[in-house]
From TrEMBL:
The keyword Nucleotide-binding applies. It comes from the Bacteria. This is Taurine transporter ATP-binding subunit. Its EC number is 3.6.3.36. It comes from Antarctobacter heliothermus.
Length: 277
């Protein structure tokens, strides 16, 4: 990556001050490995990672490199074979209310309104009374993503992008310390996906959110991330941790800059070498 710093210079822009490089570590992964006993497959080997408060980190790699396994372990949905994961100083040994997740599909309950779906995490953990007390907070989130007028609408009446915006609200309603995103916009058309990426960036910046994204899209990873982890398979491990030196807030116009293209080409080269091994 040194050639990116020496060959390419960013256009003159005034960057938004970012606290992530100096911020405290929120999520820590230490010497993490995962072996599936059923077939003795080593899915992950010696993964180490620190994610700081307010930082947006993406992981990218070919299918089968362990991205989904890593995300499940980070969410507390699967135990590691060795190593540990720590969020806010406490080991992650199961699902936690301070971990928010968003998946490829919106997974909204069709018999509940948009507002009721947003309040579901609170209702499940704390009961209906607590959910009712959180209605104003949920409405504020819906207003934040432009769905304030759709609070009483059912999921079947929402477009794909609107449903995923509702999913963002559901993820945020419990004020999680960590957002885990599993290709949340991969099922959307390209224009809607671009819009949702800009919305996600705006929300994360406004709320100072800490996020970890699994994606197959190089452009999506670069436009959203402070850092990108490139993973390779057999066994799954991180081969490079790339810092993205683009100012925020970012715009889609940056995709056409030489610096952006250099980063994408570098990642493509890394992944291409694996494909030919």
């Amino acid at each position: 990556m040194e050639r990116l710093k020496t060959m390419m210079s960013l256009p003159e822009q005034t960057p938004v001050e970012q606290s992530a490089p100096q911020a405290r570590t929120v999520y820590k992964i230490e010497r993490l490995s995962k072996t599936y006993a059923r077939n003795n497959l080593v899915a992950l080997q010696d993964v180490n990672l620190d994610i700081r408060h307010g930082e947006f980190v993406s992981v990218i790699g070919s299918s089968g490199c362990g991205k989904s396994t890593l995300l499940k372990i980070m969410a507390g949905l699967m135990p590691p074979t060795t190593g540990r994961v720590v969020l806010e100083g406490k080991p992650v040994v199961g699902p936690r209310p301070d971990i928010g997740m968003m998946f490829q599909q919106a997974t909204l309950l069709p018999w509940k309104t948009t507002l009721e779906n947003v309040l579901m995490p609170i209702e499940i953990r704390e009961g209906r009374a607590a959910a009712r007390r959180s209605r104003d907070k949920a409405m504020d989130l819906l207003q934040l993503v432009g769905l304030g007028d759709f609070s009483n609408v059912y999921p079947g009446e929402l477009s794909g992008g609107m449903a995923q915006r509702a999913s963002i609200c559901r993820m945020l309603v419990s004020d999680p310390a960590m957002l885990l995103l599993d290709e949340p916009f991969s099922a959307l058309d390209e224009l809607t996906r671009d819009f949702m990426n800009m919305e996600l960036q705006r929300i994360c910046l406004e709320r100072g959110a800490t996020a970890f994204l699994v994606t197959h899209s190089l452009a999506e990873a670069v436009i959203l991330s402070d850092r990108i982890l490139v993973m390779k398979a057999r066994p799954g491990h991180v081969v490079e941790d790339i810092t993205i030196d683009l100012p925020r807030p970012r715009s889609l116009d940056m995709i056409n800059t030489p610096y952006f293209g250099e980063i994408v080409s570098h990642i493509r080269d890394l992944l291409g070498k694996e494909a030919h091994q």
